[in-house]
Amino acid sequence: MTIAIGDKLPAATFKEKTADGPVEISTDQLFAGKRVVLFAVPGAFTPTCSLNHLPGYLENRDTILGKGVDDIAVLAVNDWHVMGAWAQSSGGMGKIHFLADWDAGFTKAVGLEADLSAGGLGLRSKRYSMLVEDGVVKALNVEESPGQATVSGAAAMLELL
Predict the structure, then answer these.
(1) Are 32 and 135 in contact (CB under 8 A)?
(2) How far apart are CA 100 and CA 17, in angstroms?
């Protein structure tokens, strides 16, 4: 069952690369008492993710934060090494959280997994964005096609804020 507006996010732990190495970050640490924009991509370094989805959030980071958002995070079913490399190469390190959902535990728990085995990618996340307030989903925007980043993009999120 897919998570819905009004639902509380399930407990999960992600890994994130920092200057001091990998750290674990729980859903409580990231979302409790905060207003957070979370967007998910099928994979770090993939074309739509790297050329469209992520850049929109990086370019609009300050504007999003200026609308009362405490934090922004991107999530992918990749390991923390890959997410850290993506953060570094995109210029996003330290600007937004690059969360590794390495085992797809969170992705499966929210019902937003996608089997992209036919394209050689295996189990990944659907492309989506959500606005989360104190751990509760306030807005959820899931793309129909993983190759598009329109309803889940930064411009669409800004309209909601």
Answers:
(1) yes
(2) 9
Question: 97: which DSSP letter?
Answer: E
Burial 10-38 (b: 16+ CB within 10 A, else e): eebebbbbeeeeeeebebeebbeeebbbb
Tell me the pLDDT tens digit for each residue of 5-18.
999 999 999 999 98
Both tokens of 17, joined, read 């690369």
One-character DSSP codes across 40-51: E-S-TT-HHIII
Q: Which of 44, 49, 54, 130 is catalytic?
A: 49
Q: Which amino acid is it at 13?
A: T
Confidence label for 67 from pLDDT (cuts 50, 70 and 90): very high
For residue 157, give both structure tokens: 């999120």
**Amino acid residing at 75:** L
Q: What is the mean pLDDT of residues 98-116?
A: 94
Q: Greater confidence, 148 or 62?
A: 62
Angle (CA) 30 67 8, round 5°: 35
55 catalytic residue (yes or no): no
Chain-centroid distance of CA 133 in Å reads 15
